[in-house]
Amino acid sequence: MAKNTNPDSGIIGIFRHLDTVCAAIEKVRVRPDFAGHEVFSPTSYHEIEHASGFGASPVRAFTLVGALTGTVTGFGLALACDWDWPIIVGGKTPGIYSLPAYVVLGFEFTILLGAIATVAGMLVMGRIPNPKRRVLDVRTTDDKFAIFLPGAQLASPQAQFLRDCGAEEVRNT
Amino acid sequence: MSDDSKLWSKTISDVNSEILVNIENPHPAYYVALAFAITTLLIGIGFVALHFTYGLGLWNFRPPVYWAVDITNFVFWVGIGHAGTLISAILFLFRAKWRNTVNRSAEAMTIFAVICALVFPLIHMGRPWHGAIWAVPLPNTNNLWVNFRSPLFWDVMAISTYFTTSLLFWYMGLVPDLASIRDRVTGFKRLVYGIMSFGWRGTSKQWWHYEAGYGFLAALATPLVLSVHSVVSWDFAMSLQPGWHTTIFPPYFVAGAILSGCAMVYNLLLPVRYMFKLEKFILPEHLESLLRLTLLTSTIVFYAYSLEFFVAWYSGNPYEWALFEKRAVGPYSFYFWVMMFCNCIFPLALWSRRVRNNIPVSFVICVLVNVGMWFERYNIILSSLVEDFVPARWGHFQPGLWEVMITLGSFGLFTTFYLVFVKFFPVVSLSEIKLIMPKPLSSKASGGAHHHG
Fold this sequence. Notes:
Strand content of chain B: under 5%
Oligomer: heterodimer
Number of domains of chain B: 1
Number of strands of chain B: 0
Structural class of chain A: alpha+beta
Distance between the termini of chain A: 16 Å
CATH architecture of chain B: Up-down Bundle
CATH superfamily of chain B: Formate dehydrogenase/DMSO reductase domain
């Protein structure tokens, strides 16, 4: 089989029911001839997450690093400005003695950078935006599930396997 | 699960085709509403333009009142913005299913309300183009840094963080739905929605990271919701002004904000539900839950009002007590009683299930709550300012034409934003409503007990 460079070329099996596709996912994910397959779902059903054997998402590392960077930035900004130009406000000494007043700044920066890093994490880990990939079947953002196997042919045993798992339609992409 | 199937007359296959009708075919009433909103907005813009040309003297600011209607509007709109993130973040963490039908509207409302709020401190500066320099941590001409110990600066940080986080939260929620629209339209529209959806494909891995990220955003936004109006309340509570200098302000402001926000979500959702025929998706049960939340926060606000009076009396501080006495029976008592009746007395009708299920009556109560919440802020700001520490400076304040017209303009701005939003974006979260609808199971798995459709 000639190696196709288009990552979207292969076979796709369309499923109507959540339980059918979950049973199929559990079978295909342990088969070596289904390496590199992708599952499409109209929404984030936890059943699919369980069937795929996903654990904790690495997005949490982005959130933690972003939030801690924010805490340091917030307090650091206020303290650095105090160090640059120490000024007494309301009879209160600048620097770490005014730390309670800087909690708001530290808190806001924690949330701000944490949120930005979380969104960045979702995009990076989800590999979007990626102009090279396209939508394989428009029904998967509506109400259908799908399993896609890159590089496979319609006559292959994998296509027959998808049909046996309950796919109502298997076609080339 | 069996309860859910009885509740829904629609299946997940109906969601995209029936909810996205707003993009393709809105009700004629939509255009009437939009024309009305744009007209109000243009009037507001005209008055703001005159204000920039001739200065703040056009407003009725007279010593000692320099904060009045504009700051009232600022606090009011920030308050409206609260329910959005409350519904989308806190109720998400509580796994309250009913939130999935109203969260999109509520989040959009948050974004637009915060924009309206941000307008007021800017126009109050008189020369808003300087605002960018004054409000951000840049050294000024004397090389001084901003005062990080000032509640006004905290407020800038709090509101801008809140706006950014709410925007990210709202937009991330929109991404899969924009992909759904992309897959229904053709040509140029498809390109635009494709770019806006970041090329979302809906793979299980994308959903896995998306769900995790959404949860973390909710967890980050939850303390933020409670903190923003607390920080707004410190603009007042950190001062020494009688009537403002109270420790109850943060929780009191947060409860009030959620009350007005929930009432506003109800007021916005009903016309949209009617115009786009969403009765089968935004169910009466969901609307009723919103009213229960309104009732809950109304009782908290009632408690806060009462406690404020009790503490003013019990503290033995004659200035504090004199001010509260004046609020209730003095020259501005009208505003006080409007606030009491609209926020505390009328919402008590929502204890009755019959009232909660009576949509016109509930709608009117929610409008009244918003009127009451506006007057609450007006009452707090004005009554403390007109009579401060030096009796020789005591004055009087009456809103003038500019105050009224720019306030109306802000409602025009808000409504225009909201109506444009409902025309181009899914007004109910497509991917999230599918999660609370009966799952598309095969007859084998569901034992043939459920009928979908």
